[in-house]
Design goal:
Blueprint (H helix, E strand, L loop, with lengths): L6 H30 L4 E2 L6 E3 L2 E3 L1 H4 L5 E6 L11 H7 L5 H6 L3 E7 L3 H11 L5 E3 L5 H4 L28 E7 L5 E8 L8 H6 L27
InterPro entries: DUF899_thioredox, Thioredoxin-like_sf
Protein name: DUF899 domain-containing protein
Organism: Oricola cellulosilytica
């Protein structure tokens, strides 16, 4: 780990790594283009959500924007707190809505818990992003993040694996308002596909020690909700 060299040697090592980083960036740009070129599925169900301004449909969540990005936040109907991992991700959401809106994109988090619980927890965490309740309806099941009783009648499972790992799982879905006024489901990602929207993880990946998750009982055993760290 502590491999000390001269500044000249370090510069050469850094330039070599930079070439790999640039190749990775080009590959990522190509992957992003391929993602944008994915076919879409028309969303026929209007769905229903409880929001701070009243009941609305999936179309209503767009707020007049052409695109909608939804973070599927793990917070079951009978839970007293939101998932600590999703809370870690949510710490990255505040302030992004205005920038997304400038690119004709709306953003919100969606959970199955009642709206009152979501707002109370959001206040506790000090967040301000939009958060709505899907009322434990079919939305979260249809987009493969909720599996009541760990069952999955579709057989697709979580992250297209055909397997179910829990009743509530995290994810992100992107939708597009179609020219005919309908809604297209363009993309969903789960599990490690969510890493890219976690700024803290991406910062740690730039450090010598990295995420420091090796040898733990499970990957995120170190994690606490932001108001539960000591000191």
């Amino acid at each position: 780990m502590e491999n000390l060299v001269s500044r000249e040697e370090w510069i050469e090592a850094r330039k070599s790594l930079l070439a790999r980083e640039k190749a990775f960036t080009r590959d990522r740009d190509a992957l992003s283009r391929a993602r944008r070129e994915m076919p879409m599925v028309r969303v026929d169900d209007a769905y229903a959500f409880d929001t701070e301004t009243g009941e609305t449909s999936l179309a209503g969540l767009f707020g007049g924007r052409r695109q909608l990005v939804v973070y599927h936040f793990m917070f079951g109907p009978d839970w007293e707190e939101g998932c600590p991992s999703c809370s870690f991700w949510a710490d990255n959401f505040d302030g992004i809505d205005v920038h997304l809106s400038a690119r004709d994109t709306a953003f919100c988090a969606v959970s199955n818990a009642p709206l009152e619980k979501l707002i109370e927890y959001r206040q506790r965490m000090g967040w301000s992003f939009r958060w709505v309740s899907s009322r434990d309806g079919s939305f979260s099941r249809d987009f493969a993040v909720t599996f009541p009783g760990k069952s999955d009648p579709t057989g697709r499972g979580y992250n297209y694996s055909g397997k179910v790992f829990g009743e509530e799982m995290p994810g992100l879905s992107a939708f597009l308002r179609l020219k005919d006024g309908g809604i297209g489901h363009a993309y969903s990602t789960y599990a490690r596909g969510l890493d890219i929207i976690n700024g803290a993880y991406n910062i740690l990946d730039l450090t010598p020690l990295g995420r420091q998750e090796e040898g733990q009982e499970y990957t995120m055993a170190w994690l606490r909700r932001r108001d539960r760290y000591d000191g």
